[in-house]
Specification:
The complex is a heterodimer of chains A (413) and B (806).
Chain A: E1 3-6, E2 13-15, E3 17-18, E4 26-28, E5 33-37, H1 47-50, H2 55-61, E6 94-101, E7 109-119, E8 131-137, E9 156-163, E10 169-177, E11 181-182, E12 188-189, E13 207-208, E14 216-217, E15 221-227, E16 235-236, E17 244-245, E18 257-261, E19 269-277, E20 288-289, E21 292-301, E22 318-320, E23 324-330, H3 335-338, H4 343-346, H5 353-371, H6 376-386, E24 387-393, E25 400-406
Parallel strand pairs in A: 1-5, 4-6
Antiparallel strand pairs in A: 2-6, 3-16, 5-21, 6-19, 7-18, 7-21, 8-9, 9-10, 10-13, 10-14, 11-12, 15-17, 15-19, 18-22, 19-20, 22-23, 23-25, 24-25
Helix pairs in contact in A: 5-6
Chain B: E1 15-18, E2 21-24, E3 33-37, H1 46-56, E4 59-61, E5 72-79, E6 82-96, E7 106-110, E8 115-119, E9 122-126, E10 131-134, E11 141-155, E12 174-176, H2 180-194, H3 201-225, H4 231-248, H5 257-264, H6 268-277, H7 282-299, H8 308-314, H9 320-331, H10 335-353, H11 360-369, E13 393-396, E14 403-405, E15 407-408, E16 416-418, E17 423-428, H12 437-440, H13 445-451, E18 485-492, E19 500-510, E20 522-528, E21 547-554, E22 561-569, E23 573-574, E24 580-581, E25 599-600, E26 608-609, E27 613-618, E28 627-628, E29 636-638, E30 649-653, E31 661-669, E32 680-681, E33 684-693, E34 710-712, E35 716-722, H14 727-731, H15 735-741, H16 745-763, H17 768-778, E36 780-785, E37 792-798
Helix pairs in contact in B: 2-3, 3-4, 5-6, 16-17
Classes of the chains: A mainly beta (413), B alpha+beta (806).
């Protein structure tokens, strides 16, 4: 077993997409561990608190008229003229990786264990040592077309501070309404439509004393973790799918084990979209987006060894925690295969919890029948009385419903 | 030239087994849509499941090609003899399924990526957007090299109802670019495939018939267009055209060969020759078509408002007595008898497959005959059982005269009146006790009284909000439109509309068996019922089916849990009044042990942790006299949220004077979703403290401005969102039907979001921006239930967020 270190730098991150063609940032073997740094793509909402004087973050977010450290942001076109910028923001998450696993082949299953998660403290002057995050009530939020107060519509950023001295919690520092921001290439972003645009704090009005006396319990986790899909070279990081990605389930935190079906040789694992806390549904469009560092262990389960194990025939991401198993239902379980050539944009027109619930039901039934060896009648009875279905997210185009079954249910006598 | 002979008339309701799914072949109002996804199946079951999907489309995996086991989805809808399938899967080769007696080719519209057609004539590229007509007998296949994305239309002679089509010389495949008629055909087929799920049954049947007509014309056109087409193909095309003209003019009682021949520009003699060549003659054919058309109209529910003689006239029978005679001669029963028989079949078939509650039409009739409700309902004087024992403690035992079954009502006399602050112990029974009467009813005086039902006496007659004469479905009094046994109602002194009733749950204890063999033990029942979320897509046969699982409850264990004892599949049960219940369509029908096959050893090694709670806690709704107990709404009711257990409270907006609180539907445990249709249903007794918050004193309270049931637990606020927050007000008179037709988690999520935003803004004093930020970061939304018509999403706000920061 070796322990690797993967810090963030322009060479070790890719922005807004999963890809089977990007060169791996790290190659390791089954059984190895790695400490992987991740950055939130919302750090520029408050440059001073979340980027300034942090060499890793500075290097990734660097963008002047002459130099843009990471030009491509998203799976969109990289040839101008651009509406929003290279990659067109079709996918937004800063992902560290990919991590290639030696010997991984399509049909295998990759198990990723999260051993630990730590926040990344600010390195800037008076904020040094404190941890900050940003929550955005954005144009892709569930609430956006259903606002009651003026001005309508609006996007609102709330900056949180994370207190880890005791039981960790987050507390709001201030908020502001998004104003049109001009990026170094001269493109004006009237709404939040492209990641990593630095917010000029002279153009905004900060409102303090918000969410006074409210402590949001921390739930450190990675919103986006997964493997490169096989269907396309560049796949938007926003809709989650069969190889994981932007699942946005806060249960994928310390102690969790995720299982993903490998779709391309080497598996190509990437991780990002770090969250300090999120509620089931991620209603406003984002969590408390906070840069985090994780310790991971990777275990490759070869296709031929899967028979008779809970991983046999796995075609979707599966979560195991100390207490429970969870499957993830989506509006389209494999939208890339189901929606054809324009899947990556088409998916946003089909978002539906009703379809996601249907998918979660089918996946949990299959799990209970194949892994727990129940008959269909047993599986359905048990799902009704012992399984819980919840809303994972309603903001990632391919909406999610998770089905959870407690392990204690299966205790034998 | 030969003719496709009319198959003998078959219109029995027949279950067609399609390996994994089933469809009713009755052309009634039965939803015939079937979704498919490979995600439902384990890897090694996928090839078989996918083969079934292809077969339903008239296709099969091509010989020698490997079985496809990758990701695949499909939607399929059928009508008699017509099947449209939209297929999406990976690369593979498919071929038509051989069918000796069918002449119409399979139409395959290639929607993306193109394909390669292989036949005895060699290879041909089929570009995307082109149509392929595949002969059913021919030696050909079509390969999709990237992905299979296609729409298939299969038409068999069942769709023709005796219409003649000339012998089609269709022996080799045709690739047709989308021009002219083919363009219209492809456009219609593609549009149909997109709307398969949303078309109503009546719309679907019209669309399916149009597709049949288009395909017939197109196929004849193609067969005749072939360069070396023999004379017979031209003749067949002419005959087909003539038959279409006849179809259009069946209402013309004066339809003669001369007039048709004239319209076609051929001689009458040639016309007769064409029919003779097809083994028929003109007048016999026209008569047969008239009778078949009449038959179709008589069985069509959307034609129900036309009289039999109107239909006869429309089909070209000027004399209705003559029509009746001919009809009986042809089909063996009179038009009236046939129509009656069809109507019964339709409702019998539609009922269990359709929605719960009132059917739309019955509700419309009810409205027409409704009498204004009597005003000034007199309330009975308070009857408090243990008034003497303790001034403020009450006990409501369960018995036939202390329950109302399957409905809420503002006009029920209260069982007792209590004051704000009083505590009351209420015994409740599960309506599923009759699933194992020996364990859950016998020896228990209260249960025996409520469930008491012999051929001459039914202690609680009304079960549901439906008509007492069971004139809708004939299931029994109340029609089972609502199923829960509710104890009460309890009137609360001084309660007025606008007040808020707080119901605290102090304790919940299960009700042990009193039967000699099982005394002291506790049992419950879980039903995977026809209203369950899973019911339309069961994998294994028999299909569909309802399954009952009997559980034993171990409430006193260190870790209280339930274990399955045995299960059985529902078999038709005859109730004491002689009504047969083919499905679980009426509550409290005793299941006799001999009528079902008990299977033991189910859910072996599975222990389900208990979450005791009451599914139903309600105040009486203001809108109607009899309200179905199944859909939850603003007044509470069938909330089915397990968080409403011991130590929690629910706040309900009072809607009628006295509030009229009822409790029932006790659950030993339930999962979020209540997927199969029920929880572990187990009789229990609850102790409640009831506190009345007067309208004038609500300001500043968490439950000020309350228009929905609000749950408070030791740690959380739980807000209840529904597809339709107040379905009775939203849909008016249609409500009790419409609420079942428009179930949606997407709507319930919206409602939960709006309620939580309002709570955070008005109760917690946050701005909208703060509320949205907090909801995103800290509020958990979950699925409450997807089986009660008015589906539920709840939003959980942890009280920890607001704990004093010191």
């Amino acid at each position: 077993m070796r322990h690797h270190l993967l810090p963030v730098s322009p060479k070790t991150v890719h922005w807004g997409y999963f890809s089977k063609v990007v060169a791996p940032a790290l190659t390791l073997r089954s059984g190895d561990r790695a400490t992987i740094e991740t950055l939130t793509h919302h750090a520029n909402d408050d440059y001073e608190r979340m980027i300034k004087d942090d060499p890793g973050a500075e290097s990734v977010f660097a963008w002047t008229r002459e130099h843009k450290a990471l030009a491509r942001r998203g799976a969109g076109p990289t040839q101008g003229p651009f509406i929003r910028g290279s990659g067109e923001g079709l996918g937004v998450h800063l992902l560290t990786g990919p991590v290639a696993i030696e010997g991984a082949e399509p049909g295998d299953v990759l198990e990723v264990r999260i051993l630990d998660i730590r926040p990344r403290p600010s390195q800037c002057g008076c904020h040094a040592g404190k941890c900050f995050g940003s929550n955005v009530a954005a144009n892709w939020g569930f609430h956006y077309h259903d606002l009651i107060e003026e001005p309508k519509p609006r996007e609102v950023i709330t900056i949180f501070e994370l207190d880890t001295s005791g039981e960790p919690y987050a507390k709001a520092v201030y908020n502001y309404v998004w104003t049109p921001q001009t990026d170094p290439d001269g493109i004006v972003h009237a709404t939040i439509d492209y990641p990593g645009v630095r917010v000029d704090h002279t153009t905004i009005t900060k409102r303090e004393n918000i969410l006074a006396d409210i402590r949001v319990p921390a739930r450190l986790h990675f919103g986006t973790m997964g493997l490169a899909p096989s269907e396309a070279d560049f796949v938007s990081s926003i809709p989650p799918g069969y190889s994981g990605g932007n699942i946005d389930d806060w249960r994928i935190g310390k102690g969790a084990r995720m299982y993903y079906p490998v779709a391309v040789p080497g598996a190509y694992f990437s991780v990002g979209d770090p969250h300090a806390a999120q509620g089931d549904s991620e209603l406003g469009g984002t969590a408390i987006e906070t840069s985090l560092t994780g310790d991971f262990e990777f275990i490759l389960h070869k296709k031929n060894d899967l028979g008779g194990t809970p991983l046999e025939g796995l075609t979707h991401p599966l979560l195991e925690t100390a207490q429970a198993w969870s499957v993830y239902g989506f509006t389209y379980p494999n939208y890339l295969a189901e929606l054809g050539a324009n899947a990556q944009t088409e998916i946003a027109n089909h978002s539906s919890l009703d379809r996601a619930m249907r998918d979660a039901f089918r996946k949990l039934r299959r799990f209970l029948m194949t892994v727990q060896r129940l008959s269909e009648d047993e599986a359905i009875s048990l799902m009704s009385v012992g399984a819980d279905f919840g809303v994972t997210q309603v903001v990632d185009a391919n909406w999610g419903v998770h089905g959870t079954i407690r392990k204690s249910v299966f205790r034998c006598e | 030239m030969s003719v496709i002979v009319t198959p003998p008339w078959r219109r029995t309701v027949e279950l067609v087994w399609h390996g994994g799914c089933f469809a009713f072949r009755n052309p009634g109002r039965v939803m015939s849509f079937r979704p498919f996804t490979s995600e439902s199946y384990a890897q090694d079951e996928r090839p078989e499941a996918w083969r079934d999907v292809l077969n339903a489309a008239g296709l099969q995996p091509a010989a020698k090609s490997s079985f496809y086991d990758g990701h695949a989805t499909a939607s399929h809808r059928n009508a008699p003899g017509v099947a449209v399938s939209r297929l999406a899967a990976g690369a593979q080769v498919v071929a038509p399924l051989p069918h000796a007696h069918e002449d119409l080719p399979i139409a395959l519209l290639v929607t993306e990526d193109g394909a390669v057609l292989k036949s005895t004539e060699g290879h041909r590229i089929v570009p995307a957007g082109h149509l392929v007509l595949l002969p059913r007998g021919g030696d050909c296949s079509i390969g999709f090299q990237r992905d299979l994305r296609a729409i298939a239309l299969s038409v068999t002679s069942d769709a023709l109802h005796g219409r003649m089509i000339g012998k089609l010389e269709f022996t080799r495949p045709h690739v047709i670019p989308p021009n002219g008629l083919a363009e219209i055909f492809c456009g219609t087929l593609a549009a149909t495939a997109r709307s398969l799920e949303s078309l109503s049954d009546a719309e679907w049947s019209t669309v399916a018939q149009s597709l049949v007509d288009l395909l017939l014309t197109l196929a004849h056109q193609q067969a005749a267009s072939v360069k070396d087409a023999c004379n017979s193909a031209t003749q067949a095309a002419t005959l087909h055209r003539i038959c279409q003209t006849i179809e259009r003019r069946l209402d013309d009682a004066e339809l003669t060969p001369a007039r048709i021949a004239q319209a076609e520009g051929i001689s009458e003699r040639y016309l007769q020759k064409l029919f003779e060549g097809a083994g028929d003659n003109f007048s016999h054919y026209v008569r047969e078509r008239r009778l078949q058309r009449a038959l179709a109209d008589l069985s069509n529910p959307t034609e129900a408002h036309h009289s039999i003689s109107e239909i006869a006239y429309r089909c070209g029978f000027a004399d209705s007595a003559h029509f009746s005679r001919s009809f009986r001669q042809r089909f063996g029963l009179s038009p009236r008898e046939f129509r009656q028989q069809q109507a019964e079949r339709t409702s019998a078939a539609a009922a269990p497959r359709g929605q719960r509650g009132w059917p739309h039409q019955a509700l419309a009739q009810l409205r027409a005959h409704q009498v204004a409700p009597a005003k000034g309902q007199t309330m009975l004087p308070a009857q408090t059982n243990d008034l003497a024992a303790a001034q403020q403690r009450h006990h409501l035992a369960v018995s036939a005269d202390r329950v109302h079954w399957g409905y809420f009502s503002r006009s029920l006399p209260p069982q007792c009146e209590i004051a704000s602050g009083d505590t009351i112990t209420i015994e409740t029974l599960t309506q599923h006790a009759s699933d194992d009467p020996e364990r859950m009813i016998s020896g228990d005086a209260g249960a025996e009284s409520v469930f008491g039902w012999t051929s001459t006496k039914k202690n609680v007659d009304r079960r549901g909000a439906g008509p007492m004469d069971a004139s809708v479905f004939g299931r029994g009094a109340g029609e089972g439109f609502g199923v829960h046994i509710c104890t009460g109602p309890v009137a609360v002194k001084d309660a007025q509309p606008g007040d808020v009733l707080e119901v605290r749950i102090l304790d919940i204890v299960p009700r042990p068996s009193r039967s000699a063999d099982y005394a002291g033990r506790v049992f419950g029942s879980g039903v995977a019922a026809w209203w369950g979320y899973h019911y339309n897509e069961l994998l294994a046969g028999p299909n569909p089916r309802e399954a009952v699982t009997i559980y034993e409850i171990f409430a006193d264990d260190a870790e209280p849990h339930a274990r399955a004892l045995y299960s059985y599949r529902w078999e038709p049960q005859t109730d004491p009044f002689g009504v047969v219940h083919a499905t679980y369509d009426y509550p409290g029908v005793p299941v006799s042990p001999g009528s079902v096959k008990r299977r033991h050893g189910v859910l072996d090694h599975v222990r389900i942790p208990l979450r005791p709670h009451f599914g139903v806690i309600a105040v009486a709704p203001r809108e109607l006299d009899f309200v179905d107990s199944i859909p939850p709404s603003y007044f509470g009711g069938n909330l089915d949220n397990w968080r409403l257990g011991k130590g929690s409270a629910v706040y309900l907006p009072v809607a009628v004077p006295g509030a009229l609180l009822s409790v029932g539907d006790p659950h030993a445990t339930q999962g979020d979703g209540e997927l199969s249709g029920t929880a572990i249903e187990c009789s229990m007794t609850g102790t409640f403290q009831v506190i009345l918050h007067k309208k004038g004193q609500l300001a500043g309270k968490p439950f000020a401005d309350l228009t929905y049931p609000l749950i408070e637990t030791a740690t959380d606020w739980v807000l209840t969102g529904f597809s339709h927050p107040n379905y009775l007000a939203e849909f008016g008179a249609q409500g009790q039907s419409e609420v079942y037709a428009t179930s949606s988690l997407d709507l319930a999520m919206k409602d939960a979001f709006r309620k939580m935003r309002r709570f955070l803004m008005h109760v917690k004093g946050l701005s909208e921006d703060e509320a949205v930020a907090l909801m995103s970061a800290a509020v958990d939304f979950g699925v409450t239930q997807v089986v009660d018509g008015n589906w539920g999403v709840h939003a959980i706000l942890s009280k920890r967020l607001f704990e004093d920061v010191s």
